[in-house]
Design goal:
Number of strands: 5
CATH architecture: 3-Layer(aba) Sandwich
Number of helices: 7
Strand content: 15-25%
CATH class: Alpha Beta
CATH topology: Cobalt-precorrin-4 Transmethylase, domain 1
Largest sheet: 5 strands, parallel
Protein name: DUF488 domain-containing protein
Distance between the termini: 22 Å
Number of domains: 1
Structural class: alpha/beta
Order of helices and strands: EHEHEHHHHEHE
InterPro entries: DUF488
């Protein structure tokens, strides 16, 4: 079985965020954001996050842009007030086009946490990635940490 966790860092203090990660027992975190160095990310900026994950949680850090949307897709949704259903459809098409179920081995994501910025998974591509892989791989369990 492949166990994939997901989490977003927005509206979570560092204590809560790292507490959830530590309690999960996951071995690593896979950053699925396109941009992971924004000043708005606070403790979730790439270099800081990698340090904190290792020091606080004993977790590895990997950044996989192959699981991220394109900049035009993000802009259409966030900056131009796009429709979530359109974004969701386009993003899933992108995952199929990239053939992520073949290019990424289940072992790479087993017992790892997919990270994005959205507070909740409902309108976040991390949920779409996890569900897409669940539909295309055998025996995938998904746990949303927040």
């Amino acid at each position: 079985m492949t166990h994939i966790f997901t989490i977003g860092f927005t509206k979570k203090p560092a204590r809560t965020f790292f507490g959830l990660l530590k309690e999960s027992g996951a071995a690593g975190l896979v950053d699925v954001r396109l941009n992971n160095v924004s000043q708005l990310a606070g403790f979730a900026k790439r270099d800081d996050l990698e340090f904190f994950l290792n020091e606080i949680c004993g977790m590895s850090y990997t950044h996989l842009t192959s699981l991220a949307p394109t900049q035009p897709m993000l802009d259409a949704l966030k900056k131009q007030g796009g429709d979530w259903k359109v974004y969701e459809s386009e993003f899933l098409d992108l995952m199929r086009e990239r053939r992520i179920e073949e290019s990424i081995r289940p072992e790479l994501l087993d017992n790892t946490v997919l990270l994005c910025s959205e507070e909740k998974p409902h309108h976040c591509h991390r949920r779409l990635v996890a569900e897409y892989l669940q539909a295309n791989w055998d025996d995938v369990q998904i746990t949303h940490l927040g």
